[in-house]
Design a protein that fits this description.
The complex is a heterodimer of chains A (191) and B (309). In chain A, 26% of the residues lie in helices and 28% in strands. By secondary structure, chain A is of the alpha+beta class. In chain A, 37% of the residues are buried. Chain B has a single domain, classed as Ferritin (Up-down Bundle). A two-stranded antiparallel sheet of chain B has the order 1-2. In chain B, strand 1 and strand 2 form a beta hairpin. The chains are: A alpha+beta (191), B mainly alpha (309). At the A-B interface, strand 2, helix 1, strand 4 and helix 6 of A face helix 4, helix 5, helix 7, helix 10 and helix 13 of B.
Chain lengths: 191, 309
């Protein structure tokens, strides 16, 4: 069978303008534009999304705190090597949520490992468990002009939310009418 | 560090409540157990689209059709989240899909049963998604970060799946005698397959002890199944449906509803490929793969022409 799965793109979603982009997972796609479309279909079936970024997984330089501590990953760049902008993401603490690393800022660097070294000197490192850096030129960002077609439709589809189905009050009412609430329900025979 | 020291440090991290992340040291058995579990879970989501998808063209109203379409889309999305989580452990998407299509991979046996009436759609939401939530709520606390995060996302969406099913079944139990009979008939057919979803008894579940030790699971198959039975018996009694288990009784000392024995011969027969729909499900996936080949070829050609991919 041919490998029909294409390259992986890491997906970052931003819930609202004031929140950072956070890694939601990844999608496979034949190019970045398709990755953005797939990211929207996979991760934005519900409210709310303000913006999406995709970046080829191969362009992400990722190190856990455990790997950073090994210190076997860094070689200094040449002094005159050209610098470019890298986006920096990390995972701080152990939040029980559906997203992974989040955007913390950017640095100028000559290479991925250099970008991580600069990030470690620039941003607080306490309680950080994972670092990601990626060159900004490899990141495809959704455009605000596309928000109406990409993100607005999910907000009107209220039937995708569990709150659309008020079944819990009905169940409470039924159990209460039959004396099944609390311990009394345990007296009910199956037949 | 020696292997023993690494293992001690790894287990100490789990005991502290730290998530293990891609790139961190982990025992090979931990990696292999997770690849097995997560890929099976992903396949279940993908195959799970089929029994419900069969009713998309036959939904009784436009509203029901929109809801079912959204649910089936969600299952496809859940498969994607889970394949992603498995990929972070070093297995490729192509390897997993190949294993599924070749019949080497397992997926939840409940999807090898047919959906015979519209009431099955409501009952699957309440019962099968209810069982899935029971398991997945536990897995949301799993020690492996990518799996735990996928579960948090999935549980939130599955709650919609369960509640839309409850809404349908509650309505049928308050409807005509024939509608009430359809709801009872659906419960009769889906009750046992949903109890089987929790897997073999603890005594015959070879992986359980290690999965719990490493924080992949926090409850055993039998504990999860008991929690599920207690919740469901109470709910179905409330809507006036009868659990199809003549041996079911309430045990006052433990506070549990004790069910009769699962038909384990049937369980293993369906797991091993001889259920009512095993062949049909795999055939549908193979056809989807083959029929989509021209789309993938066209997209690859487009990406190549643009100098990407």
């Amino acid at each position: 069978m041919n490998d029909s799965q294409w390259a992986r793109y890491e997906v970052f979603e931003q819930e609202r303008a004031s929140a950072p982009h956070r890694n939601a997972g990844s999608v496979h796609a034949s190019d970045a534009e398709m990755a953005l479309g797939n990211a929207r279909d996979v991760f934005v079936r519900r409210p709310n999304c303000f913006s999406l970024w995709v970046v080829p997984e191969a362009a992400v330089f990722a190190k856990t705190a455990q790997e950073v501590a090994r210190d076997d990953w860094y070689t200094a760049p040449a002094a005159d090597a050209p610098r470019e902008t890298y986006l920096v993401f990390n995972k701080k603490g152990q939040p029980a949520r559906e997203t992974f690393v989040e955007y913390v800022g950017e640095v100028k660097a000559a290479a991925p490992a250099h970008a991580l070294r600069v990030a470690l000197e620039t941003f607080p490192t306490q309680d950080v468990f994972v670092w990601w850096v990626a060159p900004e030129r490899r990141v495809l960002k959704s455009e605000q002009a596309d928000a109406a077609s990409m993100f607005a439709p999910a907000r009107t589809k209220k039937y995708r939310m569990h709150t659309f189905y008020p079944v819990e009050p009905i169940m409470r009412e039924l159990k209460s009418a039959q004396g099944m609430l609390d311990n009394s329900e345990k007296m009910t025979d199956n037949d | 560090m020696t292997e023993t020291e690494q293992l001690q440090a790894f287990e100490a991290r789990i005991a502290r409540g730290e998530k293990i992340e891609p790139g961190d040291w982990m025992p090979d058995a931990y990696r292999q157990q997770l690849i097995r579990m997560i890929s099976q879970h992903a396949h279940s989501e993908i195959i799970g689209m089929l029994p419900e998808g069969a009713w998309l063209q036959r939904a009784p109203t436009l509203r029901r059709k929109l809801v079912l379409l959204a649910k089936v889309q969600d299952e496809g999305g859940h498969g994607q989240y889970l394949y992603h989580a498995a990929e972070t452990l070093g297995v490729t998407r192509a390897e997993m899909i190949d294993a599924l299509l070749a019949g080497r991979a397992k997926y939840s046996s409940v999807f090898n049963y047919p959906t015979l009436t519209w009431a099955d759609i409501g009952m699957i939401g309440w019962l099968v998604d209810g069982a899935a939530i029971q398991n997945q709520t536990m897995l949301a606390h799993c020690s492996y970060g990518p799996y735990a995060r996928a579960m948090v996302r999935i549980c939130a969406e599955e709650t919609f799946h369960k509640k839309q099913g409850m809404e349908q079944i509650i309505r049928y139990t308050r409807g005509t005698p024939r509608q009430k009979q359809m709801a009872q008939d659906a419960l009769n057919r889906w009750w046992w397959p949903s109890l089987m979803m929790f897997g073999p008894h603890d005594a015959t579940s070879p992986n359980s002890a290690q999965l719990i030790r490493w924080g992949i699971k926090t409850k055993t198959n039998d504990e999860l199944r008991q929690d599920f039975v207690n919740k469901m018996v109470s709910d179905f009694h409330a809507v006036g449906l009868t659990i199809p288990d003549p041996d079911l009784y309430y045990d006052a000392s433990s506070g549990n509803w004790i069910s009769g024995e699962i038909n384990w011969d049937e369980f293993w027969r369906v797991v091993k490929g001889d259920g009512p729909c095993n062949a049909e499900r795999l055939q549908a996936r193979r056809e989807a793969q083959e029929n989509g080949a021209w789309v993938r070829e066209a997209l690859a050609a487009y990406a190549a022409a643009r100098g990407e991919g």
